[in-house]
Amino acid sequence: MGAVVAGILLAGCGSGAPGAGTPDMIAATSSAFGHPAILGDRDPATGQVEVSLVATAAKTEYLPGKPANVWAYRDGSAAADTATIPGPMLQLRVGDHVTVHFRNELPEATTIHWHGIRVPPAHDGTPIAQVPVPPGGTFDYVFTADDAGTFWYHPHVKSDSQIERGLYGTIVVDGGDEVRADDDRMFVLDDVKLEATGLLSERTAPLDLMLGRQGNVLLVSGRRAPSFETRPGARERWRFVNSANGRYFNLRLPGHTFQVIAWDGGLLAEPYETETLLVAPGERYEVLVTLDGAAGDELALQTIHYDRGHDIPDPGPQDLLHVRLAGPASSPVPTRKWGTFAAIPVNGQTPRRSLVLDEMEEGLPEPRFTINGQSAPDVPPIVARSGDVEVWEIRNDAPMDHPFHLHGMFFQLVDIDGVAPAHRGWKDTINVPMKKTVRVAVRYGAAGKWMYHCHILEHAERGMMGELMLQ
Ligand code: C2O
Ligand code: CU
């Protein structure tokens, strides 16, 4: 144990890294929480965005007074800037041409993947698309923001350890929508496994590999049990990103409902109300929530148990963040215009691909995860034509759920075990429940090599990953 921790400390020293900010210093009762720092755009021209992002070793205090050695992103255009978890937000408008000058100050190679953004394949940050950026190396990611929505960025090599160490950040692409809300907040849901010292645990239990590492401390945007203040009756837009290696968040705000307005691929044509909202690793949802109550009330956003398989026990409701109501009541104007939705036409003649997800344990030093009986890199690539429509039939034979992610394009849910979905929208990551078959319709995007994989990072790194080659 000691030796491993010393190794991390050394890695941290080499880069001369600045410490991460201590966001706990921000007044706990301000309304500021949920508004991340924005990456500085050095190109004054409209429609052109040029930012710098640096991955670096840093420190943060998940537990007060007990700094942890982490890896984090900082804004490279502000010399004095400190790295934060999550990293600074990339804020864009639809149509923006984006250049991200990336520098790797970590002691190991890394990449950045722009999860959900339809970037050119060579800028997708996967190891099939680029040689990982070595320590000290740089890479310019160049793409156009085609779709409005909530996205995120993270490494795509050793993702199970690099994302766990703190490498993730958010992206909002604004499409000029007319959603009316008193506030617009970003909440990144995560968990970390900490030792009593406050350091990230270096111990990997067999269950960490089987389920994806489960932390013992829940985080919202890098902080444990944050809180903020807003007016009674305020209607707020909350954007959720699940950046955890393996944890499912099943959200609720007791006494309130969420109006779900957007999925991974942007605004829905028809929002819907729900009391609980399941957010699987890699997924994004946007909701409107009206914070009813009286001045002085405190509301708790909680995560409650969801049976994702392998008989994990129910810990009871856990608080994620607190909202204090204060000040005069707010009565916002309702939104009337939402997104648009056109179903991808599929019928019995539409070509089908079948993918069977499973796990293998017996006789192996650690579990492997399979697609059609093969484990990456041995999963044969799917070869298809850009622009074609196909149905992917993803059957989960394992005794646990797997959140399935496809790069480079969005898809639509057709049915789960033959049952059509209650709500429709665009997804790039979808939970495939244990022992069920999820069918999705996809119109293939740009030619090139794309990846698909389970977004439980331990599963992706242990075989549940494949390649889609579009011609
Ligand atoms: Cu969020 Cu292939 O990744
Ligand atoms: Cu999985």
- Within the largest sheet, what's the order of strands? 10-9-12-17-14-15
How many strand elements?
29
Low-confidence stretches: 1-29
In DSSP terms (H or I, runs of 4 or more residues), the helix count works out at: 4
Fraction of residues in H or I helices: under 10%
Distance between the termini: 49 Å
Question: Whole-number average pLDDT?
Answer: 92
**Strand pairing plus helix content: what structural class?**
mainly beta
Radius of gyration: 21 Å
Q: Please give the largest β-sheet.
A: 6 strands, mixed
Shape: globular
Strand percent estimate: 35-45%
Ligand species? CU-O-CU linkage, copper (II) ion
How is this structure best summarized?
With 471 residues, the chain is mostly beta strands. The protein has helices at 2-14, 159-164, 206-211, 457-460; strands spanning 48-63, 66-75, 87-93, 97-104, 113-115, 138-144, 149-154, 169-174, 183-192, 217-220, 227-230, 235-242, 249-252, 258-263, 266-274, 277-279, 284-290, 298-303, 318-325, 352-360, 368-371, 382-384, 389-396, 402-406, 411-416, 429-432, 437-443, 448-454, 465-470.
Any overview of this molecule?
It is a single chain. Helices cover 6% and strands 41% of the residues. It is built from 4 helices and 29 strands. It has helices at 2-14, 159-164, 206-211, 457-460, and strands spanning 48-63, 66-75, 87-93, 97-104, 113-115, 138-144, 149-154, 169-174, 183-192, 217-220, 227-230, 235-242, 249-252, 258-263, 266-274, 277-279, 284-290, 298-303, 318-325, 352-360, 368-371, 382-384, 389-396, 402-406, 411-416, 429-432, 437-443, 448-454, 465-470. The protein is globular and about 60 Å long. Residues 1-29 have low confidence and may be disordered. It binds CU-O-CU linkage and copper (II) ion. The site of copper (II) ion has 6 residues, from loops.
